[in-house]
Amino acid sequence: MLASKQKGEDVTTWSGLTTLALDHVTDALKKLHIGGAYLPGWRGRFDGRFAGTALPVQCLWERFRAVDPEDYRTEEIEAAVFPGAVVVIEGGGEPAAVFGPVAAGAYAAAGATGVVVNGGSRGCTAIAKTRLRLLTRHETHLSGFGSVRRELVDRVVVGGAEIRRGDLLLGDATGLVVVPEEAVTETITLATAFAAADNTLIAGIAAGTAFTDLWQRSSRNTSSSTSM
Asked: Is the pTM of the predicted complex or chain greater than 0.85?
């Protein structure tokens, strides 16, 4: 259920995590005090959840002069996409698009799981028809092409949160959770335990057992002070 890495390709695939509620992952991060982040306020046009490995891309805007199309790094970025990747495009929150349906098709063909854009995306209806999951700050018709440089980097800072290549990203249509690569096993193990404990509480209440009795016996009573 946890991470498996294919050596030599720097490819990490996460299986079995899309059924894990983001609530339980954030509870685990809070309990463990090991970093990570929750970033709300995105626009997503998909159901369910996604999980994958971060591949960061940094955008550098040029306000007063044209940018050489080569500096958009289209081919370089597409070539770097790997199965299970979540491409994170740090666009500074700008409303101009730095992602669209052509790139979405290429990333999906390369096996990417999702794309996170701290900036604008256009052609979102077409993107939604691919299997790619998109979280974006803005849906727009305005292209940033010709005004922005893009480059592959080892880390980006999105909304004050650091996202590094190799970190685990879990998302749904409303938010994104960042789990540091070195803390994935510990975080997911605890999140799974929280989920099991909550399911036990819910089933017990449905069966007619008093909540106070269930709570006294629950590991949640001592494991976390967070909401259920």
From this structure: yes
